[in-house]
Write a structure and sequence with these properties.
Number of domains: 2
Number of helices: 14
InterPro entries: FAD-bind_Monooxygenase_sf (IPR051209), FAD/NAD-bd_sf (IPR036188), Flavin_mOase-like (IPR020946)
Distance between the termini: 40 Å
Protein name: Cyclohexanone monooxygenase
CATH architecture of the largest domain: 3-Layer(bba) Sandwich
Helix content: 25-40%
Cofactor: FAD
Pfam families: FMO-like
Largest sheet: 8 strands, mixed
CATH topology of the largest domain: FAD/NAD(P)-binding domain
Keywords: FAD, Flavoprotein, Monooxygenase, NADP, Oxidoreductase
Strand content: 15-25%
Length: about 500
């Protein structure tokens, strides 16, 4: 396609992680073949392509962290590593014939709603597209967040984020600082501790850590799953049901979390015998307020003689010396930032411009909001996969994605049946939904547990998580209610409220 050509498509999908590939599969299942998947990278996988750090793995069981319509009987472990998950997603591409729809190295630099044509005009680094429907499936874990630490520019050693791991840099014998104690850090630390000469972990807040019930899946089990698919489906159902029952404690009765809290403290006492270190690693907030982490190797690694735990944030850098907020200084050769991602300030929002020339980022200045986590007022025919308040604290995001794919499918059906050029959420419907979500959020452990987490935005609002079960969300996104939308029947015509 030449740089001046504009390719016309029915649907343009941004991103080829679980959300983007799931959307592509669902479009084909609905008989829609006029679509493209715009991917900034050289291959599919999203966060499972970008995060290749040592020890990278999923903290959701394999058989639940996969599409219901694409079961994998050959998962090698109960909790799969990054290479296996990436291989699975490549397999989904081939299994459902998606290769012809993929456009690699197509970073989206802008997407603007054209009211005259009622279409999305999309600019990428490789050319332009025009689409009736735009599906943003970039996900919340796609753009690394690196703190602007004073002096970082003059640090003479190696610096990288966990999602941009430098595999060419040998950590053997080096003095390594790991900044952060989230889900990636507790996997990185045990993986690099044996080879590092010295490892310094900067911890602002200790996480709650539970045992990880991980093991090899036997050849016999895989044989059964291949030849008796119902057995794998039953296992998936059981894994799902256990997590559905846990939701009540997180969202309605945080007091029930005292039992797993006691188990986590027992886990800490078992692996950390040093009383001073144990104090540093004991959380002072309610279990579940921040994401509960799973590891059998994190605490043992921290107890090793070549590891220092600094119970403080990183304040500044002076040459090769890292100065903690508590005043202690540490000489290091390399810095690994395990500091998470831009979750409540999605960078893609800056590149999507809706009605009246407002970007999605501007629309969300006071916090992310949308209808059913999928559509946003003033952005007709834009659907978000993993949008506001669709995250989970204890289960598989694939379940939420599949619910949103149901909504996407019905959205396209409604467009066809009404003859509308576009749908735009009514202000009242979006406000009603958002108010109800925040009302239910108020009593959850994420809001009342006494911590500051990445679930909360700059104003302290939880615009990230879903305060309910995945079954509830699926019911809420099964069909599109046209009473919640204005219909734009013809380009440039006034919306008609139904």
């Amino acid at each position: 396609m030449g740089s001046s050509a504009v390719q016309q498509v029915k649907v343009a999908v941004i991103g080829s992680g679980f959300g983007g590939l799931g959307a592509a599969v669902r479009l084909r299942q609905e008989g829609e073949h006029d679509f493209v998947v715009l991917e900034r990278g050289a291959s599919v996988g999203g966060t499972w392509r970008d995060n290749s750090y040592p020890g990278c793995a999923c903290d959701v069981p394999s058989h639940l962290y996969s599409f219901s319509f694409a079961p994998n009987p050959d998962w090698p472990r109960t909790f799969s590593g990054q290479p296996e998950i990436r291989k699975y997603l490549e397999g989904v591409v081939d299994r459902f014939g998606l290769r012809g729809h993929l456009r690699f190295h197509h970073t989206v630099t802008g997407a603007r709603w054209d009211e005259g044509t009622a279409r999305w005009e999309i600019e990428t680094e490789q050319g332009r597209y025009s689409a009736q429907v735009l599906v943003a499936a970039t996900g919340p874990l796609s753009d690394p967040s690196v703190p602007d630490v004073p002096g970082i520019a003059d640090f003479p050693g190696e610096v990288f984020h966990s999602a941009q791991w430098n595999h060419d840099y040998d950590l053997a014998g080096k003095r390594v600082a790991v900044i952060g104690t989230g889900a990636s850090a507790i996997q990185i630390v045990p993986a690099i501790q044996p080879k590092a000469g010295r490892l310094v972990l900067f911890q602002r807040t200790p996480p709650w850590v539970m045992n990880r019930m991980d093991r090899d899946i036997t050849a016999a089990e895989r044989f059964v799953y291949r030849h008796l698919p119902a057995s794998q489906k039953a296992l998936r159902g059981a894994l799902w049901l256990v997590r559905e029952y846990q939701v009540g404690a997180f969202v309605k009765r945080p007091g029930l979390l005292k039992v797993p809290e006691a188990l986590a403290l027992a886990n800490l006492r078992k692996h950390v015998k040093d009383p001073a270190l144990r104090v540093k690693l004991t959380p002072d907030y309610r279990f579940g307020c921040k994401r509960v982490l799973l590891s059998n190797t994190y605490y043992p690694a921290l107890a090793q003689p070549n590891v220092d735990v600094v119970a403080s944030g990183l304040k500044e850098i002076k040459g090769s010396t890292l100065v903690a907020s508590d005043g202690t200084e540490h000489e290091v050769d390399a810095i690994v930032f395990s500091t998470g991602f831009h979750v409540t300030d999605l960078p893609v929002a800056e590149h999507i411009t809706g009605m009246n020339g407002r970007t999605l980022a501007e629309e969300w200045e006071d916090g992310m909001a949308g209808l059913r986590g999928t559509t946003v007022r003033g952005f007709p025919n834009l659907l978000l996969i993993i949008g506001p308040n669709t995250g989970l604290g204890n289960s598989s995001m694939v379940l939420m994605i599949e619910s949103q794919l149901n909504y996407l499918a019905d959205y396209l059906r409604k467009l066809g049946s009404t003859g509308a050029a576009a749908l735009d959420v009514t202000a009242s419907a979006q406000l009603r939904w958002s108010d109800e979500v925040q009302r239910r959020m108020a009593r959850t452990v994420w809001n009342t547990g006494g911590c500051r987490s990445w679930y909360l935005d700059a104003k302290g609002n939880n615009t990230t998580l879903w305060p309910g079960t995945t079954a509830h969300f699926r019911r809420e996104t099964r069909t599109v209610d046209l009473h919640e939308y204005d219909l734009i029947r013809t380009p440039a015509a006034a919306p008609v409220n139904v």
